[in-house]
Every structure is written in C-alpha cells, then in structure tokens.
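Thread: Modeling a multi-component assembly for a lab meeting

Hi all, long-time lurker, first post. My supervisor asked me to bring a structural picture of a complex we are working on to next week's group meeting, and I have zero experience with this. I have the sequence lines for every component (347 residues in total). Could someone generate the structure of the whole assembly? Inputs are pasted exactly as I received them:
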Amino acid sequence: MRTFTGQALHWEFRDGTGELTLNRPPANEIGQQMLEELEHFATALETFSAEINVCIIGSAQRSGFSAGADLRELYNRSLPLDQKARLAGVRDFIERIHRVFNAIDAAPVVTIAAVHGVCFGGGFELALTCDLVVADKMARFAFPELRLGLIPGFGGIPRLRRDVGNALVRDLLLTGRSLNATRAHAVGMVSQLAAEGEALHLARATATHIAKFDAATRIAAKQFIKPIPHSEIQHEKELFCKLFDRPTVMAALKKFAESTDPMPYLP
Amino acid sequence: MRKTEQTLDEILALAAKHFNVAPGTLVPDDDFIKKLGINSLQALDLLTRLENHFGVELPDYELQGVSDFRTLASRIHARL
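Re: Modeling a multi-component assembly
Sure thing. I ran the full set together rather than chain by chain. Output:
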C-alpha cells in the first residue's frame, strides 16, 4: 500500500518521498500493534523503494519520537506465562523487530529520522537504523535499559558504535543518562540540528535535495558506508535473551508496570 | 567569574518565562515540580532548556532528588 493509516502508524509514498509517522499515544511505545504495522511498512518500503528516493521517519506525538519498547505490555503479556514460554515470546518479538530494523537499515533509499522530544530505548534504536538523524534541539536520547536489568535489544549498541566512539557508547549504556541533541550533534550521532519544532521541515528539505542525485550512485554510496553489524547484533540478541531470563527483570518490569507515573521511563 | 546567585537568577527567569509564571513569583527554595505543576516530561523539557541555555550537560542521575531551584543552580554551577 502506498498509503496506510493504522492504530500506531501512518505512511505515505508520494512524489518520490516516503513518510512514516509514528502515532501511538502517549509516546509511540513499541508493542505488538506497532510491531505488526512496522512489519507491513517494511514490506511496503521494499515494494515501493524503486519509486522513492528518501523515506522520513517521524512522530505525530508531542512527547517525542518514541519512548521505546512497550514495557507495560511486555510485563502484562509475560505475567501469565511460565519462564520458558516467556522467553520464547520475547525472543520471537526480538527476531521480528530485528527483521524490520534491518530492512529499514538496508533499504535502497535514503532514510532520515526526524526526531523531537524523547528518543529512548527502542525508539533510539529505530532512529539509529536511519542514514541521517535530524534532531530538534529539544530532543533527548537515552538507553535506560540497565534500570530494568537489561541491555538494549533492538540492535542499538552495535548501531551506535557504528556511528560514534566507544567512550560515548559506554557512557550512555552504563549510566542510562539522557543526552541532549546539541551534544548528540557535536559527537556525530545527530547529522543535523534543527530549531525547536523544525526537525520534520528540515528533514523534508534534505529529502528534496537528496532526490536530485542519481539513484544507483546513492545506493552504492550507502552500501559502501553503512554496513549492518550483523555479528554484533546477533551477539546482542543472545545476551538480551539471557539477561531477560532472570527473575530480576520481571521484578523490574512489575515495578515499572505498576508505577502511577504516566511516563515512568523518564528519569 | 560567574557566581551561583547569577546562575540561580537565570534559572528562575528561564523557568518563569517558559512556564508562563509572573516574574518574581518563583523563589530559590521553591519545589519547582510542585510550584510549576509540571510532570516528568516537562521536567525533562526544563532540563534540556537549562542545558542549552548554560551550555552544559546535566546527567539525569545528578538531578534525582533535586526539586528546589537553589540546589539545581549549584548542580549547574559545578559544571560551568
């Protein structure tokens, strides 16, 4: 489908550009519904990639790009399951999200994440699949997973390491602190810094410019400069599942799920 | 050399302006979460504005338990 409006996503491929809009309140948490629609999007992106030059991924939610995995859903789905079934469910989700993220990462079009507000956990990992990250100066990036006894599980660490130095990767991973867009731009994690509320406009202007270039050259350039770190991603998946399979994680998820804070992932 | 009081004054002015509070109604020992009536997302927004204004980074963990403007000013001042 060239256009689609679901419960969590909207996309449109038109006039040489694709736009995927994350739109699931309160903060585009990535749960089963979002995953299913992302899978449809990945198929559509592959089908129509010859018709477009650039695809922009943005958010219609005021809170930000995405707060990451839907941890309340994860807890509630895991709760009635025994340990073996719980791990199998998580592994299935991880494998499926990786297929989507790898498809976006390797798409033969230029992908631009237009980021504002919170860009945490799995949302940050989604942004890192894109070729360019255009961020509003009020955007913040974080990997808060260690608070839950986990590491990022959607390929975030290998992809971040692809872009920036190990010192920053370790800082974000081991402290869980959030990084503002200005600093993220200074270290090369963000490609372009936008004024407040202007990330999508800047991404569209960039898309218009990129569309002028020869498609075959663009594809070759992307393949040359942006290999997917498959081996590290596989290692990350195994480590994530190993860590998930511990009682401490369910205890942390329980605490998270029972929090009355509408956005408990925030520091 | 910048003094903590100057940092504090700038924080009070920035918070008043951004959250549409009349200048002078915020004082250093106010609990800014309660006084401004802000949620965690808005607190994060305030943190980003302060970082951008002062050109510093404030790790989230340094702000845990900090709710008054005076302590916030001292945390920022330590990184200027």
